[in-house]
Amino acid sequence: MTFGWQSPSNIALVKYWGKRNPQLPSNPSISFTLDACHTKTQTTFTDGQGVRVLLDGQPAPNFVPKVQQFIERISPRHPWLQDYHLAISTHNSFPHSSGIASSASGLSALALCVVDMAMHLGQPLNAKDARQEASILARLGSGSASRSIYGGLVVWGGTPSVPGSDDHFALPYPHPVHPLFATFRDVVMLVDVGQKAVSSTAGHALMEGHPFAAQRFAQAHTHLARLQTILAEGDVGAFLDLVEGEALTLHGLMMSSSPSYLLMRPQTLAILEAIRVYRKETGLPIGFTLDAGANVHVLFPEEAEQKAMVFVKDVLAPFAKDGRFIADRIGAGPLPL
Ligand code: DP6
Question: Fewer Cβ neighbours under 10 Å: the N or C end of the chain?
Answer without folding.
Answer: N
